[in-house]
Write a structure and sequence with these properties.
Blueprint lengths: L2 H11 L6 H9 L14 H14 L13 H12 L2 H22 L8 H28 L6 H4 L6 H14 L2 H7 L25
C-alpha cells in the first residue's frame, strides 16, 4: 500500500472527519522536505511524538500505538508531507505540551506517567473544543454564515493532525490491521452491507 492509498483509507476509518490539509495530500502527493534547517524534530520531540501517539491509542486488549511503531511514522509524515506552516503548528503544539506537563506535574511529557500525559492532552482538547464552540456560537449569531476568514481556514490544529496521523499509522500497521481490526489475508466475496454484532471489530481495509 502506498501513502496515497493509506490516506484514502484513514479518511474512511475516520468517517470522513479528516482535515482538508490531509486530504490535499491525497490529491497532490508529498512535497520534498527542505533540508536547509536540518531535521525538523529533535530527539526529545520524536520521543514526545511516540508518547503522544500512545496516549491517543494506548495499549488495551490489543497493543497500542507505541508497539505499532506509530511515533516514527507520524514524525516522518509531518516532515515529508506537510508544508512549513503546518510543520510549525505541529512543533509549536509539541512545545505547548511540554510546557503544560512541566507546569502541571514538574515533569517532561516523555517522563510523565500515562495518566499524567492523558490529563495534559485532555486539557488541550478541552480548550480546543471550547474555542470551537465559541466560533460556532459567533457563526450562529451571524445567521449561520461563515465569514470569508473562517471559511478559508483549512489547516488542522495540532491535536487534530496528531490524531489523524496516529490513526492512519496505527490502522495501516500490521498490529492495527491484524489485532485491532478483523483481518482476512485472502478475502472472499465483497458484501457491501453486513450486520455487525456488539463489540465486533471493524474490518481491515
Amino acid at each position: 500500500m502506498n501513502r496515497r492509498d493509506a490516506l484514502r483509507n484513514v479518511a474512511i476509518l475516520m468517517g470522513g472527519a479528516i482535515s482538508a490539509s490531509t486530504l490535499s495530500i491525497v490529491n497532490q502527493g508529498c512535497n520534498p522536505v527542505s533540508k536547509k534547517n536540518g531535521e525538523l524534530f529533535t530527539a526529545d520531540q520524536e520521543g514526545m511524538i511516540t508518547e503522544l501517539a500512545d496516549t491517543i491509542i494506548p495499549a488495551t486488549a490489543t497493543p497500542g500505538a507505541k508497539a505499532a511503531g506509530v511515533g516514527p511514522f507520524v514524525a516522518m509524515m509531518v516532515k515529508e508531507c506537510y508544508p512549513d506552516t503546518i510543520q510549525k503548528t505541529f512543533t509549536a503544539g509539541l512545545d505547548d505540551l511540554e510546557k503544560r506537563s512541566k507546569s502541571k506535574f514538574s515533569k517532561s511529557f516523555v517522563t510523565a506517567s500515562a495518566a499524567e500525559r492523558a490529563t495534559v492532552l485532555q486539557e488541550v482538547v478541552g480548550e480546543l473544543q471550547k474555542k470551537k464552540d465559541e466560533e460556532k456560537a459567533k457563526e450562529n449569531a451571524g445567521g449561520g454564515k461563515k465569514s470569508p476568514q473562517t471559511a478559508s481556514k483549512k489547516d488542522p490544529n495540532f491535536f487534530q493532525l496528531a490524531k489523524e496521523l496516529t490513526m492512519l499509522g496505527y490502522f495501516t500497521s500490521e498490529i492495527g490491521a491484524k489485532q485491532a481490526l478483523n483481518y482476512i489475508p485472502v478475502p472472499g466475496k465483497y458484501d457491501a452491507c453486513t450486520d455487525m454484532t456488539p463489540g465486533q471489530k471493524a474490518w481491515a481495509l
